[in-house]
TrEMBL record:
Residues 215-359 form the Poly(A) polymerase central domain. It is found in: Nucleus. Residues 516-527, 665-675 have a biased composition (Basic and acidic residues). Residues 699-708 have a biased composition (Polar residues). Its main location: nucleus. This is polynucleotide adenylyltransferase.
Length: 755
């Protein structure tokens, strides 16, 4: 649905805040590989049929008619005279993937209803319009979310999924030819209206700022598919959503204005592998504007200093579209960028193909330990509301764990949810857990996250529409006990079904002996009895063949159960789990131990103060001529460095305190936290560090009685020392039974305890 005039934007004018890195055009190789890519995308069924396209247009036309009837109805009800009722108007705009032209079959349509000043959001949009839609037979699954950051009404219209926002302008009459790209449209608008308008304004601006819309669309389709396959497409989970990927791709199109999609994909990975986050990605200079609205600026706004991966929207008021990114999700995305860059280089040498790039990431083979978050409700309507609310809060659990453990315990949230067909109105979410790589391991160091989880559940249970039956349960589950319903066909694979790029790359490194310090193969020995464990390649890990530096997670049970077979020794990298003395009292705790590792590489964005650099008035330096590939890459790198030089300076340590809702008790307790980590109750035989919180919750209905497989162990409150805000001695938290404790101990500790 591109507007006329958006198809040819360059006109010899520079797009972007810097000169391009390269003005080079496509080679014959680029033409061939681009055709291969386009065929791959078609075979992946990323394009809708003509019939579906017509159906979407009809739905949008019908929706536009409905809001026009709605605004006249409420105008008459408010006592406006007949002339104003006759002139009353509302208008539907589209944005997101549909407006960008990169939507696929079955995708929802992001829409915006723009109404006059007398049509309110609370009473009229979420009142009268919602009632009208609910009475229409073609409207199903109507789900209003009025308290969201951007209030939205979700529903299906004749089978087409619609996300409908509302913007109330200061105009008495909405003209049919309204241009919402003008800044004056924001005059006297409330914050929710500004946010709602932002999607449309940003989408249109992106299309104005790319040199070739067609190349942009093909490249963006490619990157969206890649991100979904690799598990890094989800704004709500702390990765990147559709608008974020669009902005990143648009910037690459500006830097290589004459390149075809094949080269743009390759340069995407090359540029963002070298990008020094948190340097912001911007398509144009940030404008202050004349309306006094706050724009992204870490020099003035304290919260902006703590953004880890700023991707700035090009429309006023400019905002960071990726504020959801955490240190853990940033690390994961950087690893994926590195992997993509390596594969693209291998493709140029005919050692890989598009299938290799788009290999799906095996999330449930990547970690030894997971958190499983189960939610349930008593009926479909309650479940839809509860699910939407919990999904919007899951990111807080990742942030809380990172913050309360000083980024030492890293979380990898899966971007989707899973349903057990045998349990109606139920979904499960998963997070992979591992100790931070590349830092010295303290003897007996332990992370007990039960208190953190309990705090998260309490915040979730503050849901204003909470009713009986809405429950949330958080459990620790080992990899070998992941429920079968997460796997295709509900059948657990015995071993990896194919050789992945990581395992293949690892084999090449071992054979050639050319292991690089910043490249680690994905193939790992599975310590729970399977030889097919895969580990995400760590860009900051050193490949080590010596077993004492093996980077693997081990599970050691603190109690021997008759039904549990002993963990077999797979190799010299395995550690033995010592049986506890039969007379020793234990709390059924599950210890997650990590071998001692060494890593010479430091990741800047994880290590405290970081300098944020962007360029508003860059030098007009283009890429110098390169005699060969090596010098060409060096020249590219030099120009890229100039792209990341500028006035914005920021220092980052931990996320802004206000970023974590309901965390006021932690705001002045960095010292208390450190002290309590040392003083919290531990197993008597270990010296460890702990942080705590329970894991089961229901709406006053008592503990959940749902049966789970034996691998799930629910986290419950521990007798821990809760940080005190007034400096007085903390009081123990009452508990029934201590079930789970996540321990990360060094190899030497584990080896010393083994018999």
């Amino acid at each position: 649905m591109a507007s006329p005039g958006l198809s040819n934007r360059n006109n010899g004018k520079r797009l972007g805040i810097t000169e391009p890195i390269s003005l080079g055009g496509p080679t014959e190789y680029d033409v061939i590989k681009t055709r291969e890519l386009e065929k791959y995308l078609q075979d992946a069924r990323l394009y809708e049929s003509q019939e579906e396209a017509v159906s979407r247009e009809e739905v949008l036309g019908r929706l536009d008619q409905i809001v026009k009837i709605w605004v006249k109805t409420i105008s008459r009800a408010k006592g406006l005279n007949e002339q104003l009722v006759h002139e009353a108007n509302a208008k539907i705009f589209t944005f997101g993937s549909y407006r960008l032209g990169v939507h696929g079959p079955g995708a929802d349509i992001d829409t915006l209803c723009v109404g006059p000043r007398h049509a309110t959001r609370e009473e009229d949009f979420f009142g009268e319009l919602q009632r009208m839609l609910s009475e229409m037979p073609e409207v199903t699954e109507l789900h209003p979310v009025p308290d969201a950051h951007v209030p939205v009404m979700k529903f299906k219209f004749s089978g087409v999924s619609i996300d409908l926002l509302y913007a109330k302008l200061s105009l008495w009459v909405i003209p049919e030819d309204l241009d919402i790209s003008q800044d004056s449209i924001l005059q006297n608008a409330d914050e929710q209206t500004v946010r709602s308008l932002n999607g449309c304004r940003v989408t249109d601006q992106i299309l104005r700022l790319v040199p070739s819309i067609q190349n942009f669309r093909t490249t963006l389709r490619c990157m969206r598919l890649w991100a979904k396959r690799r598990g890094v497409y989800s704004n709500v989970a702390g990765f990147l959503g559709g608008i974020n990927w669009a902005l990143l791709v648009a910037r690459i199109c500006q830097l290589y204005p004459n390149a075809l999609p094949n080269m743009l994909v390759s340069r995407f990975f090359r540029v963002y592998t070298q990008w020094r986050w948190p340097n912001p990605v911007m398509l144009c200079a940030i404008e202050e504007g004349s309306l006094g609205l706050q724009v992204w600026d870490p020099r003035r706004n304290p919260k902006d200093k703590y953004h880890l991966m700023p991707i700035i929207t090009p429309a006023y008021p400019s905002m960071n579209s990726s504020y959801n990114v955490s240190s853990s999700t940033l690390r994961i995305m950087l690893e994926e960028f590195q992997r993509g860059n390596e594969i693209c280089e291998a493709m140029e040498a005919n050692k890989a193909d598009w299938d290799t790039l788009f290999e799906s990431y095996e999330f449930f083979e990547a970690y030894k330990n997971y958190l499983q978050i189960d939610i349930s409700a008593e009926n479909a309507d309650d479940f839809r509301k509860w699910k939407g609310w919990v999904e919007s809060r899951l990111r807080q659990l990742t942030l809380k764990i990172e913050r309360h453990t000083y980024d030492m315990l890293q979380c990898h949230p899966h971007p989707g949810d899973f349903s057990d067909k045998s349990r109606p109105f139920h979904s499960s979410y998963f997070m992979g857990l591992q100790r931070k790589q590349g830092v010295p391991v303290t003897e007996g160091e332990q992370f007990d996250i039960r208190a953190t989880v309990e705090e998260f559940k309490q915040s979730v249970n503050r849901y204003t529409l909470l009713v009986h039956g809405m429950e949330i349960r958080v459990s620790h589950v080992k990899r070998r006990n992941i429920p079968n319903f997460v796997f295709p066909g509900e059948v657990r694979p015995l071993r990896p079904s194919k050789v992945t790029w990581g395992s293949r790359r690892g084999s090449e490194l071992k054979v050639s002996g050319d292991a690089q310090p910043d490249k680690l193969c994905e193939g790992k020995t599975d310590l729970d009895g399977s030889d097919g464990g895969q580990k995400r390649k760590r860009v900051d890990d050193t490949v080590e063949t010596d077993s004492k530096y093996a980077k693997s997670l081990h599970l050691c049970s603190g109690e021997v159960h008759a039904a549990s077979p002993p963990i077999s020794t797979i190799s010299s990298r395995s550690t033995k789990c010592e049986s506890m003395d039969a007379n020793k009292k234990v709390d059924d705790s599950i210890a997650v131990s990590l071998e001692k590792i060494e890593n010479p590489a430091d990741i800047p964005y994880q290590n405290g103060q970081i300098e944020v650099l962007s360029r508003c008035n860059p030098p007009n330096d283009s890429l110098p001529a390169a005699a060969n590939t090596s010098s060409f890459k060096e020249a590219e790198k030099m120009v890229l460095e100039k792209n990341m030089a500028g006035p914005y300076v920021s220092h980052q340590a931990f996320p802004e305190l206000d970023e974590l809702e309901d965390d006021s008790e932690y705001r002045h307790q960095v010292k208390d936290f450190s002290r309590n980590m040392k003083s919290s109750q531990m197993e008597p035989s270990e010296e460890s560090v702990s942080v705590s919180a329970p894991v089961n919750s229901s709406n006053g209905a008592g503990p959940s009685t749902d049966s789970y497989n034996g691998g799930l162990e629910e986290l419950e409150p521990a007798e821990l020392m809760v940080p005190s805000s007034n400096g007085t001695p903390p009081e123990p938290v009452a508990q029934k039974k201590s079930i789970i404790r996540l321990n990360f101990t060094s190899l030497s500790k584990a080896a010393g305890k083994s018999s």
